[in-house]
Design a protein that fits this description.
Number of helices: 7
CATH class: Alpha Beta
Number of domains: 1
Structural class: alpha/beta
Largest sheet: 7 strands, mixed
């Protein structure tokens, strides 16, 4: 009887829609602090979803899609949401090079101020592409943790960068499943 209960509990966990895999994460995972600034790297709509998830998690977060170094005042965590959208860039009135430079300056200033970087990739495989991959390649190595939708790592792209740079990687099945590890990442 006891073995059956344990087996049922184990199966419930494994089959749960919120089950997720921690890779390189564990007790030495960096706890992030609030307040949190959420911004885009690529101007996709995924940054808005990140803001909604942060609110649902009860996190004190400010969304600024085109945040600059000046926006880091009194911020304890910078969250960068990867996902390139030419339509989003156009709506923001910036081109690819301006976006890369904005994010480069923002991440550099965060590093100078010892503000840890949390990276999210919520769009899965559909939000991967040449421009998104360029942004991930350049900025993910500065992160302490990445939380991603598993289908966006179908080719091991995130795993490789995270392993090479000793970054905690959390993979989830669906965007909504980001809620739990996002909440758990903060003190």
């Amino acid at each position: 009887m006891r073995k059956n209960i344990i087996l049922v509990l184990a199966l419930c966990f494994l089959l749960s829609p919120v089950a997720f895999a921690y890779k390189n994460a564990g007790e030495n995972s960096p706890p992030f602090e609030l307040p949190n600034l959420i911004t885009s790297a690529g101007q996709s709509a995924d940054v808005q979803m990140a803001s909604v998830l942060a609110k649902r998690a009860g996190l004190n977060a400010t969304l600024k899609k085109t945040a600059t170094a000046e926006d880091l005042e009194n911020i304890k965590t910078l969250t960068l949401v990867f996902g390139a959208s030419l339509k989003g860039l156009g709506a923001a009135g910036i081109d690819v090079d301006q976006e890369k430079e904005r994010v480069r300056e923002l991440v550099s200033e965060a590093k100078k101020r010892d503000i840890p970087l949390l990276c999210l990739h919520l769009g899965g495989e559909a939000r991967r592409g040449q421009l998104t991959d360029q942004l991930i390649t350049e900025f993910l190595p500065f992160a302490q943790m990445a939380i991603i939708v598993k289908s966006g790592n179908h080719d091991g792209f995130f795993s490789k960068i995270c392993e090479e740079n000793n970054i905690s990687l959390v993979e989830v099945e669906k965007t909504v499943d980001v809620l739990t590890p996002l909440k758990d990442a903060f003190k």
